[in-house]
Structure to design on (458 residues):
DNA sequence: GCGCGGCGTTGATGCAGGTCAATCGCAATT
DNA sequence: AATTGCGATTGACCTGCATCAACGCCGCGC
């Protein structure tokens, strides 16, 4: 059903020393504040950043590269929960454990921030508390859209995926996919064959062009949106 | 694909006068605090509580009855986001609008609380702020489990649904379903026929018994859990 | 250059679940 | 008791996607 790339576990997890001095008053630029509190770390292709059910000691922000979060069922089926692109924050939990695993899809630089630092900052600073809440709510919205994707047809799922990626990727009508067909399939609840076939269908109907397998040109956004129901 | 019960819109929405005096110091019994801030209101079967994209002025707590939240796609397909049973809180948004619609499934009593009251309380009280965050995180977890359900086979989905309901309903090994087959189907991303057939399969394999259509006896929880992958 | 391995595409076939339709059960009404 | 009406079940058939398998493309190491 899906591959299961040979994930090397990286044993960072004790690195990421915490902040130097942090500004006394909260700026509302939360994301920028995070930047000051963390240490950037490199992760290689297919290297695990954290595992499901591990203690959620850190929060992460993608500097460069791409990250996938996922769960694997007993029988090996893998579901990708989300893709995180540069600027995105992931791994924030309210409970003590990560509910998904996370891996770098390509060579990536990830900012690593101690969760306890954020949480204690939130206790002193309402604005930060609200930002944490807002972030979790954002994840909730993404999960809910994901649910809506999963009840659709293959065409609709793929179209929806492409539009989502286009919207996130610097708004060009050309998308550079950092992930494999297998990753896309496991995100959309399809097989690689169906993803591939659907892309060629969309290409034949002139909705997209696929100059190289990792590059998709949105040629008729209206048609895609129509599919996106 | 799904019914679309004749939803009567109720025009409450301006009712729900806010709190009498509230305790100065936060108790950690957040849910109890909410109880003091809201007004209980009755909603009839299939009556809308709020609509998608409406301003999220209130937060709701089920006193009795059951509520469903849902979205409808262009072509009429309905996806149920969640069922809320007595004690559950729903309709809490961080943004200004509800992202789903909500309806009472059966005659229900719902506590209605002004969101602004909660939010302003949270600004003064870290504990309340944390509880709001925790609630949203809980919703996120439910959405994520829902995603995992939607990639499974029909048997697995139905088994998972029954186990979920059993766990939430006073832990008996007998579940009283307040919702129709259509509601279950729209929650699981299946058709009523498939739900019905799957239940009879499970009955034939002695995993469950179905004395009446709304009552399910979990006869072999291990078998169900095995299906739940 | 050549061979190899990973990724992607394409084709042939199978099957789980959707669709269409008939029937049943049961509660409410007369 | 007969009638109506709605939800649920069951059956027959159809189809969209999965499965199984072959092949193509391309970058990399030798």
């Amino acid at each position: 059903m899906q591959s299961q790339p040979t994930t090397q576990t990286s044993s960072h997890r004790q690195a990421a020393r915490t902040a130097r001095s942090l500004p006394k008053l909260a700026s509302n630029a939360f994301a920028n504040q995070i930047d000051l509190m963390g240490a950037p770390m490199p992760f290689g292709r297919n290297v695990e950043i954290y595992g499901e059910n591990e203690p959620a000691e850190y929060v992460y922000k993608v500097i460069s590269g791409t990250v996938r979060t996922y769960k694997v069922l007993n029988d090996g089926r893998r579901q990708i929960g989300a893709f995180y692109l540069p600027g995105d924050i992931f791994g924030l939990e309210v409970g003590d454990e990560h509910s998904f695993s996370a891996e770098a899809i390509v060579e990536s630089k990830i900012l690593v921030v101690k969760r306890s630092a954020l949480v204690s900052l939130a206790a002193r600073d309402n604005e930060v508390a609200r930002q944490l809440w807002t972030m979790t709510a954002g994840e909730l919205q993404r999960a809910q859209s994901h649910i809506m994707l999963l009840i659709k047809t293959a065409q609709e799922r793929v179209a929806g995926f492409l539009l989502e990626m286009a919207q996130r990727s610097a708004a060009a009508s050309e998308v550079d996919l950092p992930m494999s067909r297998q990753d896309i399939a496991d995100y959309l609840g399809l097989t690689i064959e169906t993803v591939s076939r659907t892309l060629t269908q969309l290409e034949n109907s002139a909705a997209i062009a696929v100059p190289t397998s990792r590059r998709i040109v949105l040629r008729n956004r209206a048609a895609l949106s129509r599919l996106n129901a």
About this structure: Chain A touches chain B through 35 residues (CB under 8 Å). Residues 180-182, 192-193, 196-197, 199-200, 213 of chain A lie near DNA strand C (CB under 10 Å from a C1').
